[in-house]
Amino acid sequence: MPDDDVLEPRTVPAWLEAGVSGVPRPRAWDAVVTVEMPALRDSALTRVSFQVLAADQVELVGTEGAATVDDDVLAMFAAHATSSLPPPLEARAVRADGGHWSVAARTTKRRPAEIELPTDVDVISVARAPDGELTVHVNGELVIDLAGRVASTTASIVQQAESEYEAFVATLERFASGSVALSIDPL
User: Fold this and answer.
1) Measuring CA to CA, how many Å separate 89 from each of 80, 109, 111, 164, 179?
2) What pLDDT was estimated at residue 1?
3) I need a surface site. Which of 21, 77, 97, 184 has the fewest CB within 10 A?
């Protein structure tokens, strides 16, 4: 028997794939609820992705089947998502049939930010490696020389992230509504 075979039945080797082997896949959502939405019974809407950053701040991320979502409908989806998990969270509502919908939610580190983004910037990502090297991406493009408002915004992001971790990835992004959210993850 090779050394990497399963010797303890409760131990799962790293090479064993989920699904085929009987090992369950990791959970994708922290909470899932089924709700009835009679107002959407005749709607073409099939999927709504949204984020609840705070109790009073819901941001629409995307839709399928229809271009817009009524604010009242979005608020109802958010209320169902937050009935199981406190904000901040990301969620997705998917039509099951007719007026029945499944709303899945998971916690997220994204939270409202007091940092302002320059008007021509939608996303700034800053990574500090354990060796201290700082890497900055603005709207997905690597920035070598920081200048102007991007430099001051980056400094604010770094200052806030340093208060939580030595090595980190911090992302400041603007939603379609104009509000700004920050997420900070350790490296």
Assistant:
1) 12, 8, 9, 20, 16
2) 44
3) 97
Q: pTM of this prediction?
A: 0.72
Report helix, strand or coil for 40: helix
Contacts of 186 (CB under 8 A, 6+ apart): 164, 165, 167, 168
Task: State the Cα–Cα distance between residues 155 and 10, nearest whole angstrom.
Answer: 47
Q: How far apart are CA 4 and CA 16, in angstroms?
A: 11
Q: Is the Cβ–Cβ distance between 52 and 45 less than 8 Å? A: no
Mean pLDDT in order along the chain per 10 residues (187 residues): 51 61 74 90 90 89 85 92 92 89 92 87 94 92 83 91 93 88 92
CA angle 127, 134, 163 (to 5 degrees): 65
The pair of three-digit structure tokens given for residue 19, joined into one six-digit string: 């699904």
Residue 158: exposed, middle, or buried by beta-carbon count in 10 A (0-12, 13-18, 19+)? middle
Q: Return d(Cα 150, Cα 155) in angstroms, integer.
A: 9
Q: What is the pLDDT of residue 34?
A: 93
Which candidate, 93, 115, 118, places its Cα nearest to that of 159? 115
CB 58 within 8 A of CB 78: yes
